[in-house]
Amino acid sequence: MPSLNSSFKLALLLFLALLFICLFCILWLDSGLAQGLALAGISVAGIVRTSPRQFFQELRLFASFVVLMGLFYLIFGIFSLNGHPLSWWSIFAAKRLALFLSTLLTFNVLLSFISMEDIFALPIAVGRKKYLLLGSSLYSTSRNAMENIELHTSLFPENQQQKCSMGGRFRRQLISILTLIFYILREAELQGELMDNRIQHCFTTEKMRGKKK
Asked: Are 195 and 130 in contact (CB under 8 A)?
């Protein structure tokens, strides 16, 4: 029964993710109203699912990417790329940035419903289950590590000097994101090796005992 419940939950979450992609990334891609409603709706869901503090803390993870994308769209508008004026690029940027944020927040909310127990209960081989477990573990690790990374990054002397300027804050966010990426890559290597070791010594031993019986 737990296996069926976990399989049903994961299937439902996958269906919701595909439904979001079909509606907002394909069907209503250029609808400003739809993109705005999607962002507002998933923001409310994210706040209810976690807390206002944690929700806005997670938004800070994407701030650097949003600012960088906005700067590129601004440059496109200034130079009237493809013959479109700045006003057209501003509207286009608003739609795409709303889609970018709503997509990240949607998958963030959906992933929060998946627990380690759900993955363990799946009726699949442990070798394939390992990648799901590793992904879930790294997802939790990244959420918990970002606050400490930002704290240590803010203690750099050059970041303290540039603390009040927009360029300084943007630079600090980029450093935090790069630090998080390298940290997750290192954790993926360590946790992957640990899982391989446990699979080799625990599950192989259980199989050998089963054969002897």
From this structure: yes
CA distances (Å), origin 50, targets 60, 79, 80, 93? 15, 42, 42, 28
Measured CA to CA, the distance from residue 149 to residue 60 in angstroms comes to 12
pLDDT at 206: 47
The residue that leads in pLDDT, 172 or 33, is: 33
CA angle 98/61/70 to nearest 5° reads 40
Instruction: Kindly tell me if the per-residue pLDDT of 197 is higher than 50.
Output: yes
Mean pLDDT of 76-87: 90
What's the rounded Cα separation, in Å, for the pair 174 and 68? 10
Dihedral sign for Cα atoms in the order 186, 191, 193, 196: negative
Instruction: State the residue for tokens 């990426």.
Output: 181
pTM for the whole structure: 0.73
- Regarding predicted confidence, which is higher, 19 or 124? 19
Q: Which of 70, 72, 141, 65 is nearest to 103 (CA)?
A: 65
Residues with Cβ within 8 Å of 64's Cβ and at least 6 positions away in sequence, in order, are: 170, 173, 174, 176, 177
To the nearest 10°, the Cα dihedral for 84, 28, 16, 141?
A: 20
Amino acid at 212: K
